[in-house]
Request: fold
Amino acid sequence: MGQILSLRHYRQEVIAHSHEHAQVVISLSGSLAFEIDGRGTLLRQQHLVVVPAGAHHTCGSDQGSQCLVLDVPSQDWLGESLGSHADASRRLLDSAGHLSLDANQHQLVSWLANSPVNDPLIARQGAILLLASLNNSVAPVTAKRLPFAALDAYIDQNLAYPLQVIDLARVAGLSCARLHSRFLSECGLTPMDYIRQRRLNCALQLLRHSALPMGEVASRVGYASQSAFSAAMLREFGASPSKLRRESGDN
Reply:
């Protein structure tokens, strides 16, 4: 990814791609046909579209269109740059949207369009102001929550096998980048941390409510090594599997 803010001219040639960062495209002149994940819209002056990270999109303009484009560097950049506004920006950027600018936002966009946006300081500060203004004036985009019931069922059915983020992304119907972002915003964990916690909580239940040998418990929750399993349980619960089992018997 190049600079944060850029001026781009769109022509008849259709662009069709996706990228692992969120993007905001603001029309300055002309009209631009836009389709995001199969949903179409027409982008006109003083309007913008939000393209979530990983979303497949196509665009093209019969008569030509000039746009100001904000390429959001990363989730970390949002947190570092927007502070208390970061969560609202994450929600905004997580779902495709077509929004109109108010008078103040239009003035800001016009100023940026006539500024040297290739200057890193102007680009960074302009992007921060733009995102903050959208958070203040636009009703939060209501995102459909992750399908945790389906994700939990899939993890439980495959506890004994290696699981990757891409496996959960398929269940949720999202890209890996969007799934990672949604997990952080909805439960404060990465997908892999969520899988690990579910594995270990299942192991705890097996220790407390079954007489399975320790190696069998480890195997059922995806640990080939009993020592690795014991170390993971110690980190998670502050006690070894054998101690956790004894405590359950004592109670």
The beta strands are 5-10, 15-17, 23-30, 32-36, 39-43, 47-51, 57-60, 65-71, 97-100. Residues 123 and 186 are 30 Å apart (CA to CA). The first helix runs from residue 75 to 82. The two ends are 57 Å apart (CA to CA).
